[in-house]
Write a structure and sequence with these properties.
The complex is a heterodimer. Chain A is elongated and about 55 Å long. In chain A, a hairpin with a 2-residue loop joins strand 2 and strand 3. Chain A has a two-stranded antiparallel ribbon. Helix content of chain A is about 60%, strand content about 10%. By secondary structure, chain A is mainly α. Chain B is α+β, with helices and mostly antiparallel strands. Chain B has a domain of about 25 residues. The N and C termini of chain B lie far apart (about 115 Å). Classes of the chains: A mainly alpha, B alpha+beta. At the A-B interface, strand 1, helix 1, helix 2, helix 6 and strand 2 of A face strand 1 and strand 2 of B.
Chain lengths: ~140, ~90
């Protein structure tokens, strides 16, 4: 993102495909309420192996939250209240409208990319799109 | 005895006297004042609704207009929407 400063915006749609991921998604948004969404988001990926096979991962995710100096009681209470469910559902609907059926799926403007891409490939796609937009603007 | 004839004085009501009387600048000022007040109330209510909708959102989300976390430049020529699952 820093490479394309001023030219690119990333909009994240957490797209939970199973109950474990749903808990993680809600925990990330609850961490966001405490101002640490991105930190928690990156931690979820870095420590994926430690929680992604747990049927009830909230305790483990609370441990991660503690490492980020978050209020773990508030985070657990936020997840358990279910008040992030609507947002999660809304993102699922957005994905369905765009016919997203697997993750990761990216849209670079209107150009769809399905599956994991290397950084180099992503950079190439972004450059292509920037060139296309610039040519259109002339 | 002859009936006293009543002299009829035909008076016009103020409205009849000047049916097409143009509005004075004072009337216009009053109307403008009322219009301005109504506009201020509408804008105030709109602003209040917007504030109430956003006050519970985390700071990162405020002002984005939707409920998604973003990185980079708002209004950038290239927008990447990433749908990803944490597992």
């Amino acid at each position: 993102m820093q490479r394309f400063e001023g030219q690119v915006q990333l909009v994240l749609y957490p797209f939970a495909l199973n109950p474990t991921s749903e808990v993680a998604t809600q925990a990330a948004w609850c961490a966001g309420e405490q101002g640490k969404f991105w930190e928690f988001h990156h931690m979820l990926y870095r420590r994926q192996e430690l929680w992604n096979r747990l049927a009830a991962p909230l305790e483990r995710l609370s441990d991660f939250a503690r490492d980020l100096n978050l209020d773990t009681t508030a985070l657990k209470s936020c997840v358990e209240s279910g008040r992030m469910q609507d947002r999660m559902q809304a993102d699922k609907v957005s994905g369905q409208q765009l016919q997203v059926s697997s993750t990761p799926t990216m849209f670079i403007n209107d150009y769809r990319i399905v599956g994991t891409q290397s950084e180099g490939e992503l950079v190439r796609f972004i450059r292509q799109e920037l060139n296309r937009v610039q040519v259109q603007g002339q | 005895m002859a009936k006293k004839s009543k002299a009829r004085v035909h008076t016009l009501s103020p409205r009849q006297q000047s049916p097409q009387k143009p509005l004075t600048p004072r009337h216009w000022r009053f109307k403008l004042l009322i219009g301005g007040a109504v506009l201020a109330v509408v804008l105030g209510v709109g602003g209040l609704v917007r504030f109430l909708q956003q006050r519970d959102l985390a700071p990162h989300l405020q002002g984005t207009g939707d409920m998604h976390y973003t990185q980079g430049t708002p209004g950038a020529p290239v927008v990447i929407k990433e749908f990803s699952d944490y597992t």
